[in-house]
Design a protein that fits this description.
heterotrimer; A alpha+beta (348); B mainly alpha (285); C mainly alpha (275); A: 348 residues; 8 helices; 36% strand; C: 275 residues; globular
């Protein structure tokens, strides 16, 4: 068990591609940490650099007290699970799980016993003699996890651990993964592009874009108070409303309507107003008036797109209260859920 | 990176060494030998003199050289570019939708022709084409029949080479045809295209790249093929370039001269390869 | 399309298939009939007098089995050299970032199509002569290896490219050394590709005529490919009985190898196209 310290980590690929740009990050011992971002943001590069599969151009990586930057992957005491699981096709499940122990020259008997132990822990009893091709996707994933668990590392690194599973299986595996990590208490860093997954699994999240970390925080922080418009846009299953506005006396004006604010900013300032569709209620009265344009059925709720002047504002309503397209409605933002962004950055 | 530059170089070294010494070096040495009057026997064997471009001048003025080149061109064009290519494609096209057993059987037969050692195949055709007892003449009903190998040596080796080499083209085109997306074929069918039109408009553009690679490979292989020697020996009327070089080098012992010719052949091959590459690049969109 | 057109297509189809079958089957039939005939002729026909006597004659021939053994020595020897060198090189070329790698391989491939055989006959002879390896199996193995390696590397690299790198990276993170990775992971997974190259090499060498023909003098050292031309009767005409029988014996191993490889690995020797 160890904490991870990343200092001024930079990685430049040939062709002057700055995959990582002077990153500083601390992962607390035992935490389940997510690296979240769109493809190309550098999250996988960061993970691979921690693993030692890539060498940084500048900067250091510390695991525990050790500076592992000059060390090869095998000497860092980390275990990595790849997106495609990388189960060796010619070995049985037992041999796959026991492989890291084989490298450490443990005798066959101990290896076998330990592999079975861990396999049992992950629900793989009865499958130990099979080859990976004979397993289902979910089983393969658990074998890959078992192999990582078996070598008792200080750090787990997971590269998109759930993206190869189909939707239904993914949710089960998600819960399983969280429970496993809690039981083992091993510091875990995982990479994902799925924000719902990150919010559900992680203790803390780093949202990345173009080689930089845009925000680090707990899921609540990242969801409730995104530090900039990029994070605001990226997080949330329905995109946050980001509307151009102007500060006025006592509040901010959006689309011709004024929203009252407790601590209003300087009058006349141009700002972006952010409010989640989930925090807008639709009713017969409220500060913002508009006409319903599109209604999308989401299950137990519906996403209503309202035309406010020239702006399109989304609001989530329970399914019973679904308004008909063309009706005039009034939107009320929930208390304290209106965020202001000055030039993309959150105004405290 | 895992492999490490020095280790990677170490891995490549053995292969590179073998290729360098036994493939590249002889190719380069041809340059030098061609510029001497080296012979297998006699004074010139022990102390060859540097004769500069004399051999090349002689070769370029040598009628037998041009004769051989011409025959080789006919041989390559007839047996490879047209023959193997055409027959290979025709068979692949015809077999594409047939019953599995038929496809398997014919493929096995064609493949057998390719697998059998060249010495054996050569003799099989010597047997087929024999004047007195050959199968071809027996089928045609006349004994004594035509002495094919003696009277039509070039034709004989062309047929022989087509028989021997079609398998490669057939398998390549078979794979290429199955890589044409079915949705494209179905779109053509729905638009009312006939078989020929589909072939022309959908299939051929798709396999163009493969056709080019295939033709390049079999052209080079056929150009340098020595096996017809096994049927026609050094018969003047079938003296393709390989046999010609053999005759000059080993039989007549003129190492220098044949070295010069070898280099010219090498250059011709490179030109052919470049030509194909140019054609390939031009057509790719 | 009209009925007439469909009928014409059908006829055309049968003509093509029929011609193809006859064209490819006929010459081979000689190999199956003549060895069993007491007095075989050039023509393909059922044996006039069925006999196994020809096989007995082959046994008695001084050079026959020796030459088959020589073929085996050359084939296996070249196979070992080619597979080992090609595997190492193909792996390194596949995994390491070498600039101009694809051009290099393509050039070598072209070179091997152009230089082997005819154009290099002279320098190869002289080279082997200077190295003192004339009339030795070792010399033949080296020359054949040099000629086959570019194609072998080309095919094998193509194959190794399809093996996901995550296998090796996973093993690396677990602490395996590059040699361990090669032994534990790469070679077992690459087995079909290696087997294909091995069989391909053996078949190429088994049938190889020119190089042994030029480099070997001693008839005791000659492989079957060269020997098969030497069966003449005292009268100077080809001894059909011996030639056909020996050819049959000489062909069987290679056909068996192909069948074996085909059934096991579903051969694809036209590298690059996934069928």
């Amino acid at each position: 068990m160890a904490a991870i310290e990343i200092a001024q980590l930079t990685k430049v690929f040939p062709g002057d591609v700055r995959a990582l740009d002077a990153l500083d990050l601390t992962v607390v011992d035992g935490e389940f940490f997510a690296l979240l971002g769109p493809s190309g943001c550098g999250k996988t590069t960061l993970l691979r650099t921690i693993a030692g599969l890539e060498s940084p151009t500048e900067g250091t990586v510390h695991i525990g007290d050790r500076n592992v930057t000059p060390l090869p992957p095998g000497a860092r005491d980390v275990a990595m699970v790849f997106q495609d699981y990388a189960l060796f096709p010619h070995m049985t499940v037992e041999d796959n799980i026991g492989y890291p122990l084989k490298i450490r020259r443990q005798p066959r008997a101990t290896r076998s016993a330990q592999a079975r132990d861990v396999g049992s822990q992950l629900g793989l009893d009865g499958l130990m003699a099979r080859r990976p091709a004979e397993l289902s996707g979910g089983q393969q994933q658990r074998v890959a996890l078992a192999r990582a668990v078996a070598c008792r590392p200080s750090v787990f690194l997971f590269d998109e651990p759930l993206s190869n599973l189909d939707a239904r299986l993914r949710l089960e595996a998600r819960t399983f993964l969280k429970r496993l990590q809690r039981e083992l208490g091993v510091t875990t860093v995982f990479v994902t592009h799925d924000q719902a997954e990150a919010l559900a699994l992680a203790d803390r999240i780093a949202v990345m874009e173009a080689g930089r970390i845009r925000q680090v925080g707990t899921p609540r922080e990242v969801f409730g108070r995104p530090a900039n418009t990029f994070v605001a846009n990226f997080i949330g299953s329905t995109p946050m409303n980001l509307l151009p506005g102007v500060a006025v006396e006592g509040g901010v004006e959006v689309g011709g309507f004024t929203i009252e604010l407790a601590a209003p900013p300087t009058v006349g300032e141009k700002l972006t107003v952010g409010v989640r569709p989930e925090y807008l209620s639709v009713g017969e009265s409220g500060p913002i008036e508009g006409v319903v344009s599109i209604v999308e059925h989401l299950g137990t709720s519906s996403l209503v797109t309202v035309e406010v002047g020239e702006l399109l504002v989304g609001a989530v309503v329970p399914e019973e209260d679904e308004p008909a397209p063309g009706t005039t409605v009034w939107l009320t933002p929930a208390r304290g859920r209106v965020l202001l962004y000055r030039e993309g950055e959150l105004v405290r | 990176m895992g492999l490490g530059r020095s280790r990677a170089v170490g891995f490549i070294a053995p292969a590179l060494l073998l290729i360098g010494v036994f493939l590249v070096f002889p190719g380069v040495w041809t340059l030098y030998i061609g510029a001497t009057n080296f012979r297998l026997t006699g004074v010139a064997a022990r102390t060859p003199d540097f004769v500069g471009l004399d051999n090349y001048r002689a070769a370029l003025g040598d009628e037998t050289f041009y004769h051989s080149l011409w025959l080789t061109l006919l041989f390559v064009f007839g047996s490879a570019v047209i023959g193997q290519n055409g027959l290979g494609f025709t068979l692949a096209w015809a077999l594409r939708d047939t019953r599995k057993w038929l496809k398997r059987t014919l493929e096995t037969l064609v493949l057998l022709a390719w697998i059998l050692p060249s010495s054996v195949v050569a003799f099989l055709w010597v047997a087929m084409l024999d004047r007195d007892g050959g199968t071809i003449n027996e089928m045609l009903g006349n004994t004594p029949g035509v002495a094919w190998i003696v009277e039509y040596p070039l034709l004989s080796i062309i047929i022989f080479n087509i028989w021997r080499g079609t398998a490669f083209s057939m398998m390549l085109y078979s794979a290429a045809l199955s890589s044409v997306p079915p949705s494209h074929l179905e779109t053509a069918r729905l638009a009312g295209a006939t078989g020929t039109q589909t072939l022309r408009d959908v299939v051929l553009p798709h396999i163009r790249r493969y056709a080019l690679t295939n033709t390049l490979l079999i052209t080079l292989w056929t150009f340098n093929d020595f096996t017809p020697f096994l049927i026609t020996a050094t018969d003047y009327d079938a003296q393709i370039i390989a046999t010609y070089i053999y005759e000059r080098a080993i039989v007549a012992g003129e190492m220098g001269y044949s070295g010069a010719i070898s280099l010219l052949v090498l250059l011709i091959n490179l030109l052919l390869a470049l030509f194909y590459l140019r054609v390939g690049r031009r057509g790719s969109r | 399309m009209g009925l007439a057109k469909a009928v014409v297509r059908r006829i055309l189809f049968y003509v093509v298939i029929g011609f193809g079958t006859a064209f490819f089957a006929l010459p081979v039939l000689w190999l199956l009939s003549a060895p069993f005939d007491d007095t075989p002729t050039y023509a393909v026909r059922p044996p006039r007098e069925f006999t196994f006597g020809n096989f007995a004659e082959i046994f008695e021939n001084r050079y026959a089995f020796g030459s088959l053994l020589n073929s085996v020595i050359l084939s296996i020897g070249t196979m070992v050299v080619v597979v080992t060198a090609a595997a190492l090189a193909a792996y390194a070329l596949s995994r390491a970032r070498v600039p101009g790698r694809d051009t290099l391989i393509y050039m070598l491939l072209l070179l091997s199509s152009v230089v082997t055989g005819t154009a290099a006959m002279v320098p190869i002879f002289l080279l082997i002569f200077q190295m003192g390896l004339i009339d030795s199996h070792f010399g033949v193995v080296l020359v054949l290896s040099g000629g086959l390696l570019p194609a072998a590397i080309f095919l094998l690299k193509d194959f190794i490219d399809t093996i996901p790198r995550s296998y090796e990276e996973s093993a690396r993170v677990f602490g395996a050394s590059p040699l361990q990775i090669l032994r534990h992971i790469v070679v077992p997974v690459a087995r079909p590709g290696l087997a294909t190259i091995a069989v391909w090499t053996i078949v190429q060498v088994w049938g190889s005529f020119l190089t042994p023909f030029i480099l070997l003098r001693d008839p005791d050292k000659q492989p079957a490919a060269v020997l098969v031309r030497t069966f003449y009767t005292e009268g100077g005409s080809p001894n059909l009985a011996l030639i056909s029988t020996f050819s049959l014996l000489y062909s069987i191993p290679v056909v068996l190898m192909y069948l074996f490889a085909w059934s096991r690995y579903g051969f694809r020797f036209h590298g690059g196209i996934k069928s």
